[in-house]
Specification:
With about 220 residues, the chain is mostly helical. The protein has helices at about 5-35, 40, 55-65, 90-120, 130-150, 160-165, 175-180, 180-200, 205-220.
Amino acid sequence: MSADDLMYYACAIISFVVALTGHEVAHGLAAYKLGDPTAKRAGRLSLNPLKHIDPFGTVILPLALMVLHMPIFGYAKPVPYDPRYFKDPRKGDAITGFAGPAANLAMALVAAIIAHVIFAFDARFIQGEVGYFIMLLLATFTLVNLYLMFFNLIPIPPLDGSSIIAVFIPPAWLPRWYSIQHYAFPIFMIAVITLPYLVGFNPFSWYLDVTAGNVANAIFPFRIS
């Protein structure tokens, strides 16, 4: 493994852990601000990544995607919350669900702004090893956050997109919609891993390249995907 590969993996792991931690804490904070203390009681408002790690979603899946040179995404342990604490359960559920992707977008924008400042101050900064690593980290952090944001906006339970679109689902259909969460996500993850090999085309990589990839290239000082 080359030094460049090691640098890339280091940046990817750091970016993914920080991005995922911020994503989950945002969920918990949103629910807490809406009157639900469940996440706080469970210790999930912590910035300690160990509080949020899921063995498969946080470790195995993103590492496998890195090795396969596919877009890096994954998930952590879902932050617990109880919609019964919300004044308007459906609206509160949507706000809590949207908070995670919103946090990823905010982190991506901050990283891109820092990169613009560095690049404008002295473009030669990236020619040194330290400068190159910092810019690679900022680029990777931007891209990983956008991957997580757009991945979680897919309206499949229990991804955040399913909570957001629940606002538009008739109340009588909600129990059925929420019951899908028990089996929809495992099927989805199997599809993520196996579908590209079955059809010879990876629709998830295409979706993330079109969304996250294009947004990353638009906000970063140079093309990164």
